[in-house]
Amino acid sequence: MRVHVLGGFLGAGKTALARSVASELRSQGERVALITNDQGRSLVDTRLCQDAAPDVREITGGCFCCRYPALETALLAARDSGATVAIAEAVGSCTDLVATVLAPLADRCAARLVMQPLAVVVDPWRVRQMQSDGMPDNVAFLFRKQIEEADVILLSRADLGPPQVTDAIRRCNRDAPIIAVSGLTGGGISEWLTVATTHQAQPLLIDYERYAAAEALLGWCNARVRIRGAGCLDTKDSMRRFLRAMSRVPVAHVKVTSLDPAGGWGAIVRQGGTPHILDEGMSPSASKLTWLVNARVALAPERLERAVRQAMTAAFDDVEVTWDEFECFSPSRPNPTHRYATRRATTDDSSCCTAFYQRPDVRLLLGDSFHPGGTELTLRMMHAAGLTPGETVLDVACGRGESLRAVLEHWPVSGIGIDAAATSQCAERLDIRVGDAHDIPLEAESADMVLCECALSTFVDQPGALGEMRRVLRPGGRLALSDMVLEGEVPESLRDWVHSGTCLERALSAEAYVRSLTNAGFTMLDQWDASDGLTELMTRIKRRLVGWMLASASSGVKDDLPFDPREARRTLRDAERAVADGIIRYGVFVAARAD
């Protein structure tokens, strides 16, 4: 089954486009499934889509990335029900879809789902709003990131004479095809479905603090309301008056759909905008109306609730208004189930930087020591985690098993090591296996301790790997984790090196590691800075570098070294400065499985 994921900001026109493309595909004989998505529970879009496709499924209570298991289940169920194409419309406050949705689906469901280019729907008037500083800074950041990660950009509402915004879009995304489309007329849809693009956006580099701050600025309101008048109510005018009253607040979008035979649907997508009413099948009048209201507005929840209630009062005279359901909230912090470092899984599925550490220059400088602190730090971590005799220790990304052997020398415990590049070996109390951190080859609740040293930052899917570690731990089991820590911006002189495949490329701040562990279902027990081991490792690297440079000079052969020694010295000097300044650190995090 082919899967089209539609991204784009609130009110961009995604739902109208999804309905239109579903109709187009059905006319071609395709069996179409539509997947709608929202942070709340009662969704106007789902009801609106039900007349466009026979198979409509709803993912509520969070964005696709945070509700990934439900999305995967819905897509596979649609496929098993006979759908040939699925259109999954992401909630408008969501971005980072490549890393958290498309890449995991392409990896985990490769034999069953065929992922199509990520299409991001962009409202040209919203681009103008961003250009004129009409958006809060963090919301503008979110909007730009949505455009940046697009494989294809769909400029919506082409039938309304939109402003020219191509130059502004190209500042966010230089390469994605831009196609003008209309959900109302169907214009541009065939071009989108048949576009031959070689552009494939890679996972975003995105500050999740700003992402969370942007979502926190947006208030969500979902409500069911009954309106009863003394006489007949003009159904279309009633909806228009309510939406016009809502246009006075900073709207992302407000949508209304009828829940009774009166019918009708209406929306407004920007502050001061004109209400759009879809009146097909709408009764001209009724004595009572029942509506479902979805409002997404840049107001705090309590202010949004007042605005919705006041708009209803302002829109009507002499009516009885009864609210059957009313929820207002701000979306919770994004906590993706998976977050892939690459669009496609690598041949070594446990690590996104294995190639870097196999390079001759890196092997030459690092030798056999790949993690700061060595086994001395490993033993300290085991003490902090309370390792006791008779327990089973799992070392994830164990390499040759040096850490496990050191642990077994000091405790009467059993050790299991997994590594994608391991050579299977068994000895008394030690079992090293070939394995992937994202699919650990152990039964659930089979280990008492998980050890992971300088490896999490290299994994393709860090949240997924932490979830696997929790799965194999028994209740009360502990995780001892050490890794590179990045506090602040990487110095410009080191950026090319960091992004050449090093473990620093996806290293987190200490606070972010703690948050990731908490999100994965762990409770923190202890943490400390272990950067002295990093300093010692860099000193050893410097000695090896000087030694090899002297040996190369004495041999008189300049090509003996697999790297430029001057460049290596500059990089090492800049890295030492970043460590001294507290930007590059090494940290230890000890946590217990929370039950």
List its traits.
alpha/beta, Rossmann fold, Alpha-Beta Plaits, 8-stranded parallel beta sheet, elongated
Write the SSE topology.
Layout: E1 2-8, H1 14-27, E2 32-37, H2 44-49, E3 55-59, H3 68-80, E4 85-89, H4 97-108, E5 114-115, E6 119-122, H5 124-131, H6 137-148, E7 152-155, H7 166-170, E8 178-180, H8 189-194, H9 208-216, E9 219-234, H10 235-246, E10 251-258, E11 265-268, E12 276-278, E13 285-297, H11 301-315, E14 319-329, H12 354-358, H13 360-366, H14 374-384, E15 392-396, H15 402-410, E16 414-419, E17 425-427, E18 430-434, E19 447-453, H16 462-472, E20 473-486, H17 492-498, H18 510-519, E21 522-529, H19 531-555, H20 565-580, E22 584-593
Parallel strand pairs: 1-4, 1-5, 1-6, 2-3, 2-4, 6-7, 7-8, 15-16, 15-19, 16-18, 19-20
Antiparallel strand pairs: 9-13, 9-14, 10-11, 10-13, 11-12, 17-18, 20-22, 21-22
Helix pairs in contact: 6-9, 10-11, 14-15, 19-20
CATH class of the largest domain: Alpha Beta
CATH names the topology of the largest domain as Rossmann fold
Q: What is the β-strand count?
A: 22
Mean pLDDT: 87
Class computed from helices, strands and strand pairing: alpha/beta
**Bulk shape:** elongated
How far apart, in Å, are the first and last alpha carbons?
A: 38 Å
